[in-house]
Amino acid sequence: PTIAQHFGAGRNKGIRSAFQQGLWLAAITSIAAFFLLREMGYLMYWIGVDPAIIPLVQDYLDLAAWSMPPFCFYLALRFLCEATGHSRPMLVINVATLPVVIVGNWALIFGHLGLPPLGVEGAAMNLVLVGTLNALGLLGFVLLAQRYRARRLFSSFPMPGRECLVLSKLGVPIAATLVLDSGFFSAIALMMGKMGHVWLAAHQVAINYATVVFMIPVSVSSATMARVGQAIGQKDPALARARGLLGLYCSLALVIPSILLILAAPQWIAGIYTSDVAVVQAALPLLFAVAFLQMFDATYITAQGALRGFKDVNGPLLISFSFWIVGLPAAWWLGIETGRGAVGLWWGMVAGIAVTAMLLVWRFNTVSARTVRQTPA
Q: What's the pTM value of the predicted model, to 2 decimals?
């Protein structure tokens, strides 16, 4: 949101400073992630993972850790492009490296093209290769594109300073929000493990379909954040509010076809993932819950993006606790206590996301309306 607001205000120096300090943060984060991944074996022992598979997993993570520096560098470049309203380069680069993902995994994991079969270590090597290619590709675009060359993004590179702390104050709550969100879904998955292998497989069908469709409102959320931030930089909070509302409407409109597809052909959707009749039948009531989930999913993630455009990150962080205060107890009560099983867990999850979505919309309405009132005409 910082770069988006600088871009809206036409402050090239501000864009350069925020980007350069963002690169420092990316470097610090990548180093921390590198060492964390290489020491995950101790954590896996502590949480009770089967000791027989820990060495295999750690071998993968030891190599995958080398993907963290290019991945974090790529994210810094990606956020720069998104904040300035330019998302096409990421699409082009990801499409261009897709053959490397497919062929690289085929060759390195199974041993083709004259290479030895390396198994999971080969998968990790390809992850590093693809991450590096993505980062270099986006760096090349930023260096060559006129819109970025004119801003001299890599000139007079300062050491980490006050701007780095300012960005951290925005980034840490966003990261904590992501942890709360993903942790909630992980907790639901753990409870789902008590339901037996058929229901667990049905859950994977439902959550996978929901995740694929969720990428649509996630993209709208990123665009909404950038457009709202640019309007704030232009000192036009009324426009920022309008863009936030438009983002919410767009997200909801874009998931309606998926909802209608679930209601019309749930068996066809489940059949894409499995031919097991028992799993398909178990997935049907879960997919019905997904239809409701997608409405609230689209609302909550887009409202988060709109609020980030206003640089409001602490409010969404506090609201994300409703996943745990409302959603998890509801899932436990409906799924475990009342004996409704996996279906109850899903409706508890829907309840948690619904409350979160409504609170975020309320927060957006409050913050945007207050900003409009406080800004001189």
A: 0.80
